[in-house]
Amino acid sequence: MRVMAQLAMVMNLDKCIGCHTCSVTCKQAWTNRGGTEYVWFNNVETRPGQGYPRQYEDQEKWKGGWTLNKRGKLTLKSGSRFKRLMNIFANPDLPTVDDYYEPWSYDYDNLLSSPPTDTTPVARPKSLITGEDTKVTWGANWDDDLGSGPEQVGKDPLLGKLEDKVKLEFEETFMFYLPRICEHCLNPSCAASCPSGAIYKREEDGIVLVDQDKCRGWRQCITGCPYKKIYFNHKTGKAEKCTFCYPRVEVGIPTVCSETCVGRLRYIGVMLYDADAVLEAAQVTDPQDLYTSQLGVFLNPHDPRVIAEAEKAGISPEWIAAAQDSPVYKLIVDYQLALPLHPEYRTMPMVWYVPPLSPVVDVLTETGHDGEDARNLFGAIDALRIPVGYLAELFTAGEIGPVRASLQRLAGMRAFMRSVNLGEEPDSGIAPSI
Ligand code: SF4
Ligand code: SF4
To answer: DSSP of 37-90, one letter per residue?
Structure first.
């Protein structure tokens, strides 16, 4: 066992209201500069939808993440080192500006000076780069405006793969928000794909950073990251990414996105993990085992043997205490409520998600009971408005079991807390099952 410590985040998706405060405060703090206009270290996607950049989950197209070669060895999907070096000058596996968007602003003077028209005065969008008028065809949160009617659902790459048929009538549409930052992966393919060795994972807390002095702008990391969470600064010619706000966390304050989150849905904590187990888990390809193998790399911070090994590895008593007190450990391991985003990429992401139970489901049961009635919901979990299969494609490589279990616990907790808040006797049949 080789114990290491990692900062991790859990986001509770039921609480996200899609206000984008996190994205804006992050942008003001870190990417409010020339060359980073289109860069969103934190973005909030509307699901179903295509994400940012557009269709970033299509790994056949972008060749991100890991795969096993013919000899069963873990290798980058973007090919051998030789192939990647050859690609340096003409990398075909990069999103273009159209997959992000051409950053624009508005000519606000027009609002005051434009002649009266039949419609509201329009401030035309101008390219932030060329200053020319621009036709905006895509944006960081485009799907928010489109909703998830039949047309949009049809375009979603994940929904296309669903086996359980999603009904496309408008009354059965669904949406939820998915905030995303860099996953600060335990097995980061961005670092492995960098020809300059500029990307590194900090030993003390696992934060993945780009050394700006070493970066030569080859952009292989953008191909290699399956979450497309590295961005190219076209002014400096260097790659940039979310830093987990390390200057803040080093002095004991949370990341900007967590501190300013209106829904208070971001939990930060320390996880102890077995570094030897990480590469083994990264070799697992069977969708049935992906979630459990990744869960299996985390160590119990209360186990005396783990504590002794952690001390031997030089992990400070404060960090061990933080791991023992970690809300993230509770949500991921103790309660098994939080799930990883796309474990099939096998980079071992460290931002996990509590899947959304909302909206309430009174349409689902003949009795008309809603999502707070756990007893009805236990039977109806598979008929939730957000299809469990869709959530499973996002969080467990299609395995329904862990998602269903998480949703049932959430439903049980809701029912329990509802009784407590109403001063009623909690249903004794619920507590043991959550
Ligand atoms: Fe690297 Fe972050 Fe992408 Fe993981 S999510 S591969 S750490 S950039
Ligand atoms: Fe969601 Fe919080 Fe971001 Fe608002 S600030 S969009 S609630 S994650």
So the answer is: TT--SSEEEEESS-TTTTTTT-HHHH--SEEE-TTS-EEETT--HHHHHHHTTS
Tell me what the mean pLDDT of segment 314-341 comes to. 97
Count other Cβ atoms within 10 Å, centred on residue 174.
Answer: 17
Q: Is 381 exposed, middle or buried (0-12, 13-18, 19+ CB in 10 A)?
A: buried
Ligand 2 binding pocket, CB closer than 6 Å: 16-22, 44, 177, 179, 261-263, 265
Q: Give the pLDDT confidence score for residue 327 in this predicted structure.
A: 97
Q: Is 220 in the pocket of ligand 1 (CB under 6 A)?
A: no
208 CA from centroid of ligand 2 (Å): 23
Say if CB 259 and CB 310 are below 8 A apart. Answer: no
Question: What's the pLDDT tens digit per position in 118-170?
Answer: 766 666 777 777 778 776 666 777 776 555 444 444 555 555 544 444 444 45
Residue 95 belongs to what H/E stretch?
none
Q: Quick one: which of 329, 391, 381 has its CA closest to 355?
A: 391
pLDDT at 197 over 60: yes
Residue with tokens 């790399």: 297
Alpha carbon distances (Å) from 157 to 6, 54, 66, 152, 267: 32, 10, 20, 10, 29
Nearest ligand (C-alpha, residue 189): 1
Q: Is the peptide bond before 125 cis (omega within 30 degrees of 0)?
A: no
Cβ(206)–Cβ(4) below 8 Å: yes
State yes or no: pLDDT of 41 exceeds 90.
Answer: yes
Least confident segment among 60-64, 237-241, 260-264, 334-338 = 60-64
Q: Which ligand neighbours the alpha carbon of 19 most closely?
A: 2
Choosing from 10, 13, 14, 16 the residue with most ligand 2 atoms within 8 A of its CB, the one to mutate for a pocket test is: 16
Alpha-carbon separation of residue 34 from 104, 129, 190, 232, 256 (angstroms): 13, 9, 24, 12, 21
| Average pLDDT of span 290-298 | 97
In which residue are the tokens 């070096």 written?
A: 85
Q: How far is the CA of 430 from the centre of ligand 2 (A)?
A: 31
Is the Cα dihedral 264, 265, 266, 272 positive or negative? positive
For residue 256, report the distance from its CA to the centre of ligand 2, in Å. 11
Torsion angle, CA of 427/400/155/180, rounded to 10 degrees?
A: 70
Please identify, by atom number, the ligand 1 atom nearest to the C-alpha of residue 199. Answer: 1
